[in-house]
Specification:
Helix content: 40-55%
Strand order of the largest sheet: 3-2-1-4-5-7-6
Largest sheet: 7 strands, mixed
Shape: globular
Order of helices and strands: HHHEHEHEHEHEHHEHHE
Strand content: 15-25%
Radius of gyration: 18 Å
Structural class: alpha/beta
Number of strands: 7
Length: 291
């Protein structure tokens, strides 16, 4: 992370979401603000390198995890009356600026101060308006306590809350991850969280390991190395010990397959869906203290 600049990995994820709007026409995840927030136009996108399989798989996984997370949030709002939403490591996420939540809902964007400051300048430059329901909470997950940052800007721990935490966990230490999950589980009003993580590279096939090593070298060179991996059964047990009562862990390739079945044009553009691999990625939904 460089001062006065956004997270490089957050910017890359936002770029993948933007490219998906053009190359696959947003078939998996529709985001009308994705291009604007990264400063791209549709005609900038159609380059040969964006059609390479390695980029395509990462792009579709990022689109699928966003779609999965927002669908889970929608159910929580409609079925359980959630009115307090927290986007952890918000990066250039645009949910708050395009959502149609009930009028009494509040959205908290939590992120590293440098990324958050850059994003707010970017929003002003693009003319994307900040909704009244949005509250910014600058937090460094490695050095700050999450609830301290949220409480400082009016978060209510007695209200049921929904947390979206995408594209962040692999770049944090396990200690920071445990503290964040523990804080979410401790909320008096109950909470739900969607986050993504990766299996240990030792479990990858030779093909996946080669792709992972290239990507790991790239993010390390950008100053944001991969720091944490989890064995799924051990992670599930950790969550249960913290008090999470419902766990839905979707392996990336299964998640992709389910979305590709719903969008045949994407499957055709992506090649055979059976050949898609997610690089050991998982998207996990966990809920605690259901009423």
């Amino acid at each position: 992370m460089r001062e006065q600049e956004p997270s490089r990995t957050a910017f890359a994820a936002a770029t993948h979401r933007a490219v998906h709007q053009v190359v696959e026409e947003g078939k998996i995840f529709t985001d009308p603000l994705a291009l604007a927030i990264v400063g791209m136009k549709a005609e900038d996108v159609r380059h040969d390198d964006e059609l390479q399989m390695s980029r395509r798989v990462i792009r579709l996984f990022i689109a699928a995890r966003s779609s999965y997370a927002e669908a889970a949030l929608e159910r929580a709002v409609e079925q359980r009356g959630v009115r307090q939403i927290v986007i952890l490591g918000a990066g250039l996420d645009t949910f708050a600026y395009r959502s149609r939540l009930p009028g009494n809902a509040r959205i908290f964007e939590v992120d590293h101060p440098a990324t958050q400051a850059w994003k707010r300048r970017r929003l002003e430059q693009t003319g994307i308006e900040r909704p009244d329901a949005l509250i910014y909470a600058p937090v460094d997950f490695e050095s700050d306590m999450l609830l301290d940052g949220l409480n400082a800007v009016g978060f209510d721990a007695t209200q049921r809350s929904f947390f979206i935490w995408l594209g962040v966990v692999p770049y944090l230490t396990e200690k920071a991850i445990d503290l964040t999950l523990g804080a979410i589980a401790s909320l008096a009003g109950g909470a739900e969280v969607v986050f993504d993580y990766s299996d240990p590279p030792t479990s990858f096939s030779p093909e996946l390991l080669a792709l992972h090593e290239v990507r790991a070298a790239r993010v390390a060179a950008a100053g944001e190395p991969f720091l944490s991996y989890f064995d799924p059964p051990a992670l599930h047990e950790k969550l249960r010990r913290l008090g999470f009562s419902e766990i839905d862990d979707v392996i990336g390739r299964r998640l992709l397959s389910s979305y590709l079945e719903q969008a045949t044009t994407v499957a055709q553009s992506a090649g055979e869906s059976g050949k898609l691999r997610s690089g050991g990625g998982h998207v996990l939904f966990a809920a605690t203290k259901f009423a």
